[in-house]
Design goal:
It contains 23 helices and two strands. By secondary structure, the protein is mainly α.
Length: 445
Amino acid sequence: MELIILGLFSAALLICIAFGHSIFIALLSGYCLFFFYGLLKKFSYREILKMSWKGIKTVKNILITFILIGMITAVWRDSGTIPFIIFYSSKIISSSIFILITFLLCCLISSLTGTAFGSAATLGIICMAIANTMEINPVFTGGAILSGVYFGDRCSFMSTSALLVSELTGTDIYINIKNMMRTSLVPFAASCVLYFALGINSGGNSVSTEILDVFRENFNLNLIVLLPAILIIVLCAFRIKVKIAMSVSILSASLISLFIQQTSFSELLSLLLLGFKPSDSRLAVMMSGGGVVSMLRTMGIVCISSSYAGIFEGTSLLHGIKLRIISLSKTFTAYGCILISSVLTSMIACNQTLSIMLTHYLCKDTIDNKERLAVNLENTVVVIAPLIPWSIAGAVPLTAVGAPVQSILAAFYLFLLPLWNFFYNGKTMFCIKRGGEGKSGQVSK
């Protein structure tokens, strides 16, 4: 029965993707299927609804953070923070290092904003536009963008996936990010080398200044516009709560919008809610977006996905599969089991949030160290989800920037990170410091 239910859910996902229907239809269909399964298992309507609510409650803090993320991605556009970074970084671009610079800039912006979709929809579009004017292969540029936007989506203080993993595993996000940085050094360096090599051999023409002129005409690019980004970095460095750091950054960016960029108070309130929508059509193509409204879809996906987790746990729908994974982890590495589970859940779920939740549920008992479990999830499912061609995790950023699906093959960082850590976990004893305890744990073999 369990396999039939999961099979029907997978079919609903694939049908929606194949016919271009909203993923919400499949997710709602899945909820009905899992609700029906609960009824077959003799649970009452009330009990199943309680299970659903229990799952949603686990991510309530993330839903609040989503609202702040929507606001910050809009006001950072309007205040000139993102335009400033793009404008001055672009001055060092040449055709030979363009692909590498694209990767590094996307890493920077996604680390500051914590959103892969938002980074792709802003800097990613700009990089692809510049690549087109320089006649650089869009497959390479798209791969660099996809790698870069998920660099920050994985390890930013404002990343919804990092926050979700922190909530699910009951760990400190600051400790998780420290461990993520340490385990990504080699894949990051290798990706830089590969993108540099691609750039050297890809040819291309000189950069057009037309796009950059648009920023100069529409923003006051004073150094003060960097304050919102600096504040959030400094506050997070001192381990101030992420929601407080984001709120301070939003406030500072709002003041800059009002007094430096001459945005009216009513316009500011509107863009915080509805997103940044500049009157200049050239700028609108590159920079429109953000706002609380932009996060509603993601919030809906997270709510439905988290309700699944509650039902799975309450009805033991995945209990048989979970036991097999635990058994497999005794003869195979725990990391290897998480890696395999990540591929399967990403193929079935078609979105990053549900993939993370399913992988955590299936594999949480294979490792007894919470910090190790958290970093293993970050090194697998978080970056594997965008590598699945039919998953919205990869399809949305690539569609936003106008890159072909083959760009997934050039997303080197997303491949190298899980593969390097699979090799690393299999050959060495990886120690992770526990926050405030001065202890370390070793990865299960």
